[in-house]
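Quick check before the chapter quiz. The format below is the same one you will see on the exam, so make sure you can read both the input and the output lines.
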Amino acid sequence: MRTRRGICYPKVDMCLERRVKRVRDYAGELRSCRKRLRAPAKRAGECDLFDELPDDLVACILCKLSSTAGSPADFINILITCKRLNALGLHSMVLSKASTNMLAVKAKNWCESAHRFLKQCADSGNMEACYTLGMIRFYCLNNRGSGASLMAKSAISSYAPALYSLAVIQFNGSGGSKNDKDLRAGVALCARAAFLGHIDALRELGHCLQDGYGVRQNIAEGRRFLVQANARELATVLSTPVSALTSCSWLTWNQLTQQHRHVTNGSAGSCPLLSDFGCNVPAPEAHPASRFLADWFGARDGSPGPGLRLCSHVGCGRPETRRHEFRRCSVCGAVNYCSRACQALDWKMRHKVECSPMERWLDDAGEHDGNGDADGDGEGEAVEDDGNAMVES
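Here is the expected output.
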């Protein structure tokens, strides 16, 4: 470039020149500080190596990540990385492999977008999402038909928790009247879940066989199922890392075994639980769907509706769908359970110490009959377990 006098400016390469700035450090000495240069722009035709990876390979990696994700946030962090990962992460093949922890939506974070995400996972063939969304719709959103349909879809694919939940619905006639109970269907579903190794289903089936509830009575066979449930429960604890256990002294003698024990007729045929063998086995970790139900109704003062109650087992969260649907403890009448499995777990974990004789609540409940039947229909069918009993409301 020339000036008016014809003198040329010196040619300076501004991109390659490095300016050195002299500054004084804290000691007062001069030191040089080089200015950072900008990264050169990409040349035409160059691309990132990630863009050259085929979609099927990236989708396969995302399937592995979704199946091992420890929380929903782990998978969300992948979706917000870039548009390509967002598109491939929502592919049906990736969503069908989503783990239980990845679908563990919290009740306080429930929103329409979480509902759509679970629905998308369920439509992709994820049985865990079908079961979780089915439980939420059936018990929390009062959409009985859609919730039962989703749980049935999961049960058809032999998902054990869905089979057991449908069995509980059949035993209680949930979502309908008392005449909608189908004990034989409940036993059949429970037997299928027990065959798949579901611990609560094994315990429920054992009590049904011992008491002749929906099936021909067979005390010896029922005892065998209860022993098998206890063995599986112990095996689950032994396979759990020590860091994940809530108590370090779970394999200790239970001093409350012979105390607070209420012996009733027919309890001789029942099978003692692991706590009665001297093992203080910690409570099993609740399913994310059960934790969602407990948190959902806990935020609503623990009441699912007027005159309705929650299952007293803290790891369950199931509410009543009509008045006096669940059976209550025949000893104290202060607790109620949706199933015998919940009663057995809560008895050995908590209620064994708190349970008191029946006379205290029979005097206070003037509207109840002498046999403890809240509806007054005279059924009063008791279920024995570990010295404790339940009476149908």
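If your answer matched, good. The longest helix spans residues 219-238.
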